[in-house]
Specification:
two-stranded antiparallel ribbon; Farnesyl Diphosphate Synthase; mainly alpha; 301 residues
Length: 301
């Protein structure tokens, strides 16, 4: 499919709506006990958002001509893991934020205990989806690999490990290599998982193409965080949907604080170019992924 900016925006909206439907399908209804816990889960997951990770799964699946219905479960699982991580990151013991996606954070809207339990329940739900969704790829080895990758990249060697590094780094000087290591784990690992799960849903995908997509995912995973760091300086709370200057407030190391704002913008562009280079093995069928890379470094929230 030939992609232009208008088509990209339309596809992005379709992906976001599709993800919302999948999430609504898998999340327990508020009417089922324990009611408050289920309300907190739905409140956090279904909050207005960009649905970046599901969109990336759908875009990769589209590039590989994979039926989108077969990756609905993966898209829901990855967004649910992301939502759980945000609930826990916002807690007073961690980032202590009271605003997320333009609304009170889960522990503010409900309470700390409910927020912790909501995060715990969401993490478990994500793996339930991957193991039970009947529409996913029938190849059990591919499905098991998805479970393994999500477990690995959301745990101590991925997202949770990155958050631990982040907390330990507050108020301490880091060099650029140490900062990248933190972001590769905290943000990049889950974005990399998105691309891998869609690729694992494809039949007879060559190792060369799988590796090319993985290189792409590594580049955009880091560029996304670089842009986040930039927006913490240049954005505003209303647009961001979370407190502007939160990283500065908590004295966290960021790209702008280490290499400066202009160098950070150049770094984001460099990673975008690296992502595009990784996709040279593909033709115009990967244009949607090229647009996503540009979107990551050009977004304003």
């Amino acid at each position: 499919m030939k992609i232009d900016s208008q088509t990209f925006e339309s596809l992005l909206e379709q992906y976001q709506q599709r993800a919302k439907q999948a999430l609504n399908h898998w999340l327990p209804p508020e009417s089922i006990n324990p009611v408050v816990l289920h309300k907190a889960m739905r409140y956090s997951v279904l909050a207005p958002g960009k649905r970046v990770r599901p969109a990336l799964i759908y875009a990769t699946a589209s590039t590989l001509e994979v039926d989108l219905q077969s990756v609905d479960g993966a898209a829901a699982a990855i967004e649910i893991i992301h939502a759980y991580s945000l609930i826990h990151d916002d807690l007073p013991a961690m980032d202590d934020d009271d605003l997320r996606r333009g609304r009170p954070t889960c522990h503010i809207e409900f309470d700390e205990a409910t927020a912790i339990l909501a995060g715990d329940a969401l993490q478990a739900l994500a793996f339930y989806i991957l193991s039970h969704d009947p529409d996913m790829i029938s190849d059990s080895s591919a499905r098991l690999k998805m479970v393994q990758q999500l477990a690995l990249f959301s745990g101590s060697r991925g997202m949770a490990g990155g958050q631990a590094i982040d907390l330990a780094a507050v108020g301490k000087p880091l060099n650029i290599t140490e900062l990248e290591t933190m972001h590769i784990h905290k943000t990049g690992a889950l974005i990399r998982t998105c691309v891998q799960m869609a690729a694992l849903s494809a039949k007879n995908l060559s190792e060369e193409k799988f590796n090319a997509l993985d290189c792409y995912a590594k580049a955009i995973g880091l560029s996304f965080q670089v842009q986040d760091d930039i927006l913490d300086v240049t954005g505003n709370t209303e647009t961001l949907g979370k407190p502007q200057g939160s990283d500065i407030k908590h004295n966290k190391p960021t790209y702008p604080s280490i290499i400066g704002l202009q160098a950070s913008r150049e770094k984001a562009q460099e990673l975008h170019e690296k992502a595009l280079q990784s996709l040279t093995i593909f033709g115009e069928e990967a244009d949607i992924l090229r647009y996503i890379s540009a979107w990551f470094v050009e977004r304003t929230h």
